[in-house]
Amino acid sequence: MNFLRVALVVTGVFVTASIGYGQGGPTQKKPVAAEVVSSQRSSPAYAEVLLRRTEIEAELESLLVEYTEDYPKVKQDRFELDLISKESDRLLAVKPADATKLTEALGKLIVRKVELQGELWQLQQQFGDAHPDVKRAKRKVEIFEKAIKEILG
Predict the structure, then answer these.
(1) Mind listing the pLDDT tens digit for each residue in 50-82?
(2) Nearest to 105, CA basis, from 41, 57, 152, 39
(3) Domain residue spans of the chain
(4) pTM
């Protein structure tokens, strides 16, 4: 069931992309805001982030059937869902001129960074900021963020 939900969401992204593809010509007017956002939403990076957000939402729904909001994995999924939503907004804010930067590799970097941030959050809950494992996890997150900034400029 979860696979079907993810497949439908991803299919919707690609259908949206194909509908808007190739409709302009040399005399095309400036795109309106909705068209600009549509180009970001149809990017490979956005599709990767959307896929991960959908996976987290599905997992969260599954957990909530048996567990409460206080369950550690539910808390971590909520945390990651908030982070992935912020990253989605970050991609939508990319200027149309920079849309070519929204590659699958960028999407994978963002998804992995969010996963690492979730692990960092969990370690911080368990050990506190001074623990060596927390420091290592923070450094990993920083490395991924640096790579993302390098691509997005």
Answers:
(1) 999 999 999 999 999 999 999 999 999 999 999
(2) 152
(3) 2-152
(4) 0.76
